[in-house]
Amino acid sequence: MTRLKNFLGFFGCIFLLSTLIKCEDDIYMCDSKNSKNWQIYCSGRILEAYNFHQITNDSKEYVDKPLIYSPEETIQNFTKLFGNLSAAEINREKFAYFINQSFQEAGHELKKCDPDGFIEYPPKLSAIKDQEMKEFAFSLHKIWKELCKEMDEKVLKNPEKFSLLPLKHKFIAPGGRFREPYYWDAYWIIKGLMASELYDAAKQMIYNFADYVNTYGFIPNGGRVYYLQRYAMYI
């Protein structure tokens, strides 16, 4: 009898939890409380259709694309073209054309830059005695110029057209498809900048994080609107 009670109690808890979960509102990666373009990059019919039709193999490609028009205009244009059609009913070719006419290429809003204070052969690395290790250190040091990013002024003027969170200072991106700054990567990046004696560049990374805290109350996992409710680092 005791086992039966425990058994029923266990499944009673599962039922209660499942009921509570169903009662919860949908939680998006960003929403109207923290983003003016949340219906473009964090939810909505355009995002649903893009993922359904797999316009590119990498879904990050879409959410990193800057808008040509305002979020409201973009949604209106989508509705004019496709009405109330479901994602499955939307013609893939017509939708791909809409994306090309409504968005710019990902990365278009970022400029390459040199980290402040960059010199080819910093004294600290030049002091390495092992020649092979020294050459390896210099090869890593040169990569800073490839990873240094600066936001175009238009990101600051019209932030609603970008998934990037606006930043005034230069930053070092992880590289590849990750063009925005990241919280966890920054620890190792800043250590590397210090080793390269790029102290001003390291300060700029920290200034950017301070701006995040002042604006959002925490440091997001990454510098995009779709990270505003994910893996937050609260201060």
UniProtKB/TrEMBL annotation:
Q: Name the GO terms of the biological process aspect.
A: trehalose catabolic process
InterPro entries assigned: 6-hairpin_glycosidase_sf (IPR008928), 6hp_glycosidase-like_sf (IPR012341), Glyco_hydro_37 (IPR001661), Glyco_hydro_37_CS (IPR018232)
Tell me the keywords, alphabetical order: Glycosidase, Hydrolase, Signal
- This protein's record includes keyword tRNA-binding: no
Q: What is its EC number?
A: 3.2.1.28
Family the entry assigns: Belongs to the glycosyl hydrolase 37 family.
The protein, known as: Trehalase
* Organism per entry: Panagrolaimus superbus
